[in-house]
Amino acid sequence: MRRTKTSQPLKSKIEVPWDTTGALNSEPQVSIPLDKISLPPTQPRRYFDSEALRQLTESIKQHGILQPLLVRLVGKGKHELVAGERRYRAALEIGLKEVPVVIRELDDNAAYQLALIENLLREDLNPVEETEGILQLLALKLGRNIEAIPPLLRRLQHERKAAAKASNNVIGKKQLDSEDADNLDENNDVKSNVVESESDDKYSNPDLKIVEEVFDGLGLMTWESFANNRLPLLNLPEDILDALRKGAVEYTKAKAIAQIQDNSERAAFLEQAIAQNWSLSEIKQYISENKTPNTEKTEPNNYKERFTAATTKLKKSPIWSDPSKRKQVEKLLLQLETLVNAGI
């Protein structure tokens, strides 16, 4: 069964699908001075909800740090944080002198990889952070730049579709050609080379093997689902992505607002939608009523199509329940009727 974040229990220890150090680590919890811990130069987590951080700070004031921070030794008496930055920040805010930690021996690559995995298993991770984190993890595992990962996934998709098509074509043959005749087994059955080769190709392709291991280890989604549904997310405008990263707007609302092509208009609308907490239906209705299709912008004199589009929107509009707006519609209808009758 594929794991979902909502079904995960609260983690009393860092849950990591791989042994990133090559050996099992089970060092006991110890306490060290907070000023002996420094943040790494690169952290996978960039945004922290201020209210959630405040609540955590209050909890630590009352109960202390219940889950130790994960650190690694980087010098004599000096440690670098690997996981637990929210607890680290809260401890700084409170002014704690010492914090509980678990110390592991990790090189730079393993430390960053472990931090990425721990970050991906957070329950409050938004879709953009999750997508970017998975791309970073794949880049580390595959030894490539992040920019090379989306094309690689699309290539793997293409290869899988081509293999499936070829397999269906061969299996669907009803007659044997001369090559099949030479390929009969002792029971006069055609050997299923295609099916076997498809299974073998899965493991003969090292990139595909690594990709599947990463997604199986995380247990959040398949790599095909990630390629189909998550990669397009990164094509959204940067202002929309930034709002998603901060958790200021939901993904469905962001996709709707991204339909506004004008940058300044979209930025103003996004700010207003967030400030007033508009629902998805309110956002769609506003965009539908205030935006004209691109074809109408390029062909401003196409009056018949504009009239048809306007009447279609008018039928679905809630203005009929507003007496003042209904009177305006009646006035406009009277003007149109007068104009049409005059032309007869």
Task: Note down, in words, how this protein is organized.
- The protein is of the alpha/beta class.
- Among the domains are: 8-124, Conserved hypothetical protein from pyrococcus furiosus pfu- 392566-001, ParB domain (Alpha-Beta Complex); 126-171 and 195-235, no CATH class.
- 56% of the residues lie in helices and 8% in strands.
- It contains 16 helices and 5 strands.
- The chain has helices spanning 50-63, 85-94, 108-120, 127-142, 149-171, 178-181, 193-204, 206-218, 223-230, 238-245, 251-257, 263-275, 280-290, 294-298, 303-316, 323-343; strands at 30-33, 37-38, 69-75, 78-83, 98-104.
- The chain has a 5-stranded mixed sheet with strand order 1-5-3-4-2.
- A hairpin with a 2-residue loop joins β3 (69-75) and β4 (78-83).
- α3 (108-120) packs antiparallel against α4 and α10 (238-245) packs antiparallel against α11.
- The radius of gyration is 29 Å and the shape is flat.
